[in-house]
Design goal:
4-stranded antiparallel sheet
């Protein structure tokens, strides 16, 4: 047991260093000029506006269409609604009333063209009676869809999806009336009665009707010919409102100035500050400072790993709000380990090192846990304001009606996630891990000297 206790410090220290290294730098394999990312690092951070290369795009209707103020406002709302469905860390959408267009500022991504083509797309999704493409055969279209759920998978060999569609009251009545007549016709003649589904002018599915659909839910069990990208785009289109007019991207301006380099400047400044703190801890508090440095490395590395998706949580959005939350967590972690170091040195006063460490840990634990509880609770509250959260569902419509951009919910949600993850991970490394490392160090007779913990050489060991 004593041997195990002695190795705890090395185990935790090794885990902290490994997490920091891979969380920060990641890992790649190279085959010729092709690099394959094995572990995400900070280069793969999904950065928001101002923290990376950004794109400013003007979305405009056709030249012969002049959007009214109401149509601009409605278009802005739908564009925001569709952008939020993409894994984009941050974006800004505002109306250009002079140019009668919508301006979108968002981080540059590899899929930027497909994003822009979709957010302004009028789109076409039509359910018809029979297989004929006539206006009289339309039962309902995209504007009547409240929500849709796509399940399935697409690959090079075969793509099969299913779609569950919930429609509004008008479409529900039309669907019930149409399918009732079709069911009656089937009962009378036993002839096949079909609903056909069309997406952007292409036939994608059919539904055999033998009974009326009364609940306003159209279930399509076999949708063929969609790849994963098309299915994903269709899901976003079906789960957003209809845009008044189709908008096309014009005046695309890429920006890589000042703020877009801020992430590098921030990293350099952070590394400098971290090095200064580490040197201070090591010089002033020695062994307790060393364990504190390992605890801080573990916290920073694991939190970066969460942001990059290294830990299987999916890459989160790294915005200015996320950066502020990250900085706050690290400041709290530094304060936590610093108080432990100060308290250990202050409680020496002729006591044995083991006693000083134990008393310091007990003295600080209550305040430390209360601080972390407050931070985690703040993170939970902010997360509830993110899209899909409890507070979002309660307050979103009111805030949107006041003209507040829905992007605030995205950034607030990301910041809340950083606070929650950061609070938990810092508790693991800076509270539990640091204490275990200090107790482990005290198992070495040669290290039980007050001078190695920042005390005087003549104090009791």
């Amino acid at each position: 047991m004593k041997i195990f206790s002695k190795t705890v410090v090395w185990i935790i220290a090794a885990v902290s260093v490994v997490l920091f290294f891979f969380g920060f730098f990641g890992a790649k394999t190279h085959y010729g000029d092709v690099a394959t990312i094995v572990v995400n690092g900070v280069e793969q951070l999904n950065t928001g506006v101002g923290l990376g290369k950004t794109v400013s795009v003007k979305l405009s209707a056709s030249e012969d269409t002049i959007l009214t103020d109401q149509q601009l406002a409605e278009s802005k709302r739908v564009v925001e609604q569709r952008l939020s469905a993409f894994n984009i860390a941050d974006y800004e959408v505002y109306c250009d009333y002079d140019g009668r267009s919508i301006v979108v500022d968002l981080p540059y991504t590899a899929s930027i063209n497909s994003v822009l083509s979709l957010v302004g797309s009028k789109g076409e999704f039509v359910v018809r009676k029979g297989m004929e493409e006539t206006d009289s055969s339309v039962v309902f279209n995209l504007s009547n869809i409240n929500s849709a759920t796509l399940t399935g998978n697409g690959n090079e060999m075969m793509s099969i999806f299913s779609i569950d569609i919930a429609v509004d009251s008008a479409a529900k009545a039309a669907l019930k009336e149409t399918t009732q007549a079709m069911a009656d016709e089937y009962a009378a003649s036993e002839s096949e009665q079909l609903l056909s589904v069309w997406y952007n002018g292409q036939f994608i599915a059919k539904k055999v009707i033998t009974d009326p659909i009364k609940d306003g839910m159209l279930k399509l069990d076999a949708v063929f010919g969609l790849d994963n990208n098309t299915a994903s785009e269709m899901s976003i289109l079906l789960n957003s409102d209809d845009i008044p007019f189709a908008l096309t991207a014009k005046n695309i301006v890429e920006s890589d100035l000042a703020l877009s380099h801020s992430i590098k400047a921030i990293m350099i400044a952070s590394a400098t500050a971290a090095a200064a703190i580490a040197i201070y801890l090591l010089v002033r508090y020695r062994l307790s400072g060393l364990t504190a440095v390992f605890a801080l490395l573990g916290t920073a590395g694991s939190l970066i790993a969460v942001q990059t998706g290294f830990m299987g949580t999916g890459a989160g959005g790294f915005t200015f709000a996320s950066l502020a939350a990250f900085t706050g967590i690290m400041m709290l972690a530094v304060d936590c380990v610093m108080r432990d170091c100060v308290q250990i040195k202050a409680t020496m006063n002729g006591n044995a090192v083991q006693r000083s460490v134990s008393d310091a840990m007990k003295s600080n634990l209550g305040l430390t846990l209360r601080s972390y509880f407050a931070v985690i609770m703040l993170g939970v509250i902010l997360a509830l304001f993110s899209k899909g959260g409890l507070f979002y569902s309660i307050f979103a419509s009111k805030l949107i009606s006041m003209g507040i951009s829905t992007v605030i919910f995205t950034t607030v949600g990301y910041a809340g996630a950083v606070l929650i993850w950061g609070g938990v991970l810092s508790l693991i490394f800076c509270v539990l891990g640091n204490r275990l490392m200090l107790y482990s160090v005290c198992n070495y007779d040669i290290l039980r000297k007050s001078v190695l913990f920042g005390g005087s050489a003549n104090e009791k060991a």
